[in-house]
């Protein structure tokens, strides 16, 4: 079968990986998809995905999350994409490509983007059951499946990918080994000193490292399953599973077969335009190409540049790929490693500046030219400066190199602000975005946030390693363009919420008035405050109440005037002035008796009843004076307030878990109830939601929660910073395989750290994106205790737990407070006449016309 | 309608006619910074407030943006020395002395004269 070519010239792309996809985008940007028929042959069973982020599959990213292919884009541009159909051969004479399915495509231009294959050393039994490579989503799925019945795993190769693979095996609960032939880890990127610091950190994480030894043979049992490996030093390592990560080789077979020139050590030879040296109709880009500078690039950024170059050349624009830098930053859990530029100091006459502290696992080296030019460097243990340093590479930094590597505190380290960078400094190397472009996004395109700038410039949307510098740049630019960012909480306080928290805690200030009079802005001192700072300060005081000697009960006379309306009535105000009531149903578990009680109360008070999105029941349409009566019956039946009204813990959703579900591996319901009872009533900068799933299937949607817990065979994985709502965000994995006690301790710390440092009305998701250092910083603080505050965080939480009291019960037992629950102070028995209801679907809904009948405009005013 | 029992303390009174004062409640029922609603004999609702300095204010209780009788349940504050309440529903602020909406100059609610006697 031969596919008929259209009248339009045809471009056939072989390989739909990261670079292939980028090439398609470049074609579309240049309008070439309109003038050409574009055919894509994709070998893998799924279109292009983010291979760089492959390992994040193990921290909860689904294959769909990793996808880089927008099917709308493919359709819109009329691209013919054949998934799961690799090219088998190329006939250059006839200009035809034959695919596995038997289809034959004529081409005018052929682009090879076939990537690499993992190199597997030719050791005996290398193909035994239990041997894997680490390159595709399918590889990961297979490893994950096999790991379920394994306890130990070994990775052959201690390079960038090997370490990533070893981290993943550990995450799967395996005892993990790394076997590296070279005398140190990451031999390509780091030197001896860096390797030593890295080794220490990796071993501290519980991985066993064997350097300077080769793998001689894979040992198998009678059924052909891996049981261990023989090493070159004569020793044997017992393992159930082996992952080969000993480097990659260009996939150039199809090119060899059709007579294209390939390099001595592989790679399809191309010129600076990415055209093969043998055939002007054939291009090669990405990891399969041997670039004009004689190198095969194993990184995505150079591949992207090649994709742009090839597309430009096809469009008859001028472009050239002459080489790229090999900067990398390791994304392995808990280790910071970065190398950039001429990391090994191969430039003639270059000099080193080295700071090394093996006790702290720190190693930083800069390679400097004779004239002071920064040529490259290696950072291990602390890669904070990576983004800035990389951008300075090739120029003379404005401060002395020593000051760039010394740790904070040692001889005043230089703060190299982004302002020091020249406009043509490349900030994002994945997308080749310069500082000038980013500034332009702020000044000309009026972007005011990092996400907006990301969207506008693409910066930061590749490997993500530049996002930090990006944030600094955007802020600096906003400030420079006169957007005076007053970080004060409101018109009354010039401090941020975090600063007020610190003041309240340190000075044990327990009333709002005291805080306002001492720390308010000049015009606000002595005044009545405002509707923004009152609830914010009320929340701070409430979450610290036991520690600062304040009254934790929110309706206490001093705290009551500060509470938002909902908190003040311990119920949620509805559009017609009535209220809704949500009792706590911890973990969503409820007895039939309690369900009946809710039903009876709702029936007796004529309330509209609805199952909420948070696994509990909401009763709407209560008038103020009915609230205490409703609560009394709920409290009698054993219910408590569900705090649906407060900026505090809402629900901890659960799935049914191990007790009933055939897949469950832990008791998710019990854990959800424990968590909900522990954190109930905790006042926080914004509401807190949580969920616990009994297995990786994630029926409780824990990854969309502020703190979500997913059961593993060995305990619990804790995810943080998830959000549904208007701007959904998948939660990030904070820690794995925790015991019950470890889990709770970590959540205690996490929540208290959030409460301490977040802005008002800032969910954990936005907080995590905003705070400097992001997730890594939070992990340092709450897991590693880098600030030494964990004990304090834990004791603050312990105080909250010990002092918790149910607000409803407290209120119905206090006649003075109850007197506030009336529609009219002078007519306590009279209901508000504008709160009325009409029937709908066998229940009630607010009588809205009644609200407009109530109009009594003041003469002369123009009311709506 | 049952009216709140009288006590010997100071009373909050609203001016409803030239020389006519309507007694609402004991002054002690007004927590500084928090409002209460009162029902007038003609069916109107009034929101009464007491600020930190002890000053009393009264405006219509009806939120003109939603029609609900809720202004008494809003959070109060002061802006350049002028007291205001923010509607608990959609958060528009109203000057307590004049009833003027601070977020929409075309909207104003009625303000009442109020005293403690
Ligand atoms: C009742 C309920 C809808 C329902 O009928 O199912 C509901 C109702 C309200 N939601 Fe919600 N949300 C409800 C579940 C959710 C969920 C789903 C969930 O929790 O699983 C979400 C998305 C998940 C999330 O928060 O990440 C959700 C995202 C929001 C948001 C957006 C938050 C965000 O970060 O983007 C708001 C607005 C806000 O909080 O600022 C909001 C605000 C509200 C308010 C409080 C709006 C208001 O001020 O009146 C509603 C008051 C309810 C009342 O009067 O009782 N509601 N809301 C659900 C109560 C759950 C519960 O049992 O407590
Ligand atoms: C775990 C991991 C982590 C990484 N981390 C980083 C990192 O942090 N930074 C970085 O810069 N790089 C990283 N890389 C490398 C990066 O993923 C590659 O440089 C990039 O994917 C190269 O893109 P490519 O399109 O050339 O090749 P690929 O993405 O491999 O795509 C090639 C595609 O072509 C297909 N193919 C091959 N032959 C045929 C055929 N005959 N017909 C049809 N299709 C065919 C293959 O199946 C494949 O899907 C990482 C790689 C891995 C595996
Ligand atoms: S998350 Fe797992 S354990 Fe829980 S209900 Fe779903 S499949 Fe079952
Ligand atoms: S450098 Fe990779 S996303 Fe910017």
Automatic annotation (TrEMBL), chain B:
Residues 22-117 form the Rieske domain. It comes from Streptomyces fuscus. Pfam families: Rieske_2. This is Nitrite reductase small subunit NirD. Keywords: 2Fe-2S, Iron, Iron-sulfur, Metal-binding, Nitrate assimilation, Oxidoreductase. InterPro entries: NirD, Rieske-like_NirD, Rieske_2Fe-2S, Rieske_2Fe-2S_sf.
